[in-house]
C-alpha cells in the first residue's frame, strides 16, 4: 500500500518558475492599492504607505497573520475600508522578493515607491 507523502495535494497557486514560464503574480483589483509597510504597531496592525500617497493604518486578517510574517518594507496589497477609506484598510496579500522584482521589471511599481520617494508614476 502506497502512502501519500507531503502536505496538501492539489495545484500549486502562484508558481514562480523563472525562464520560459510566466510568473503569475496577483495584481490589485478595483478598489485595491499597492502599499509598503512603514511601521509595525503590534496586535496585527501596520502603518502602510499606499500608492495614492496616504498612510493607512491596516490590519492583517487572521488567515494571513497565521500564514505569513509581515515586516517593515514589505510590498502588500491594501483594501481600504468602506468607512474611513483614507485612514484604514486591510492587508490582502504580501509579495515575495521575487514577485517584487517582477513588478519592478514590468513597471507596475517604481523603485522610488519602494524607497519612499515619489509615488507610483
TrEMBL record:
Residues 21-96 form the S1-like domain. It comes from the Archaea. SMART domains: eIF1a. Keywords: Initiation factor, Protein biosynthesis. Seems to be required for maximal rate of protein biosynthesis. Enhances ribosome dissociation into subunits and stabilizes the binding of the initiator Met-tRNA(I) to 40 S ribosomal subunits. The keyword Manganese does not apply. Residues 1-20 are annotated as: Disordered. The lineage of its organism: Archaea, Methanobacteriati, Methanobacteriota, Thermococci, Thermococcales. CDD domains: S1_IF1A. SUPFAM superfamilies: Nucleic acid-binding proteins. This is Translation initiation factor 1A. Residues 1-15 have a biased composition (Basic residues). The keyword Protein biosynthesis applies. GO terms for molecular function: RNA binding; translation initiation factor activity. Belongs to the eIF-1A family. It comes from Thermococcus thioreducens.
Amino acid at each position: 500500500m502506497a502512502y501519500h507523502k507531503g502536505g496538501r495535494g492539489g495545484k500549486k497557486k502562484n508558481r514562480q518558475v523563472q525562464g520560459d514560464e510566466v510568473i503569475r503574480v496577483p495584481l490589485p483589483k478595483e478598489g485595491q492599492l499597492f502599499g509598503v509597510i512603514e511601521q509595525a504597531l503590534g496586535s496585527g496592525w501596520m502603518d502602510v504607505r499606499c500608492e495614492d500617497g496616504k498612510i493607512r493604518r491596516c490590519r492583517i486578517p487572521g488567515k494571513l497573520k497565521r500564514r505569513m510574517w509581515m515586516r517593515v518594507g514589505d510590498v502588500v496589497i491594501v483594501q481600504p475600508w468602506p468607512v474611513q477609506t483614507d485612514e484604514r484598510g486591510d492587508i490582502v496579500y504580501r509579495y515575495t522578493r521575487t514577485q517584487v522584482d517582477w513588478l519592478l521589471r514590468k513597471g507596475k511599481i517604481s523603485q522610488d515607491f519602494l524607497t519612499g520617494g515619489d509615488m507610483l508614476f
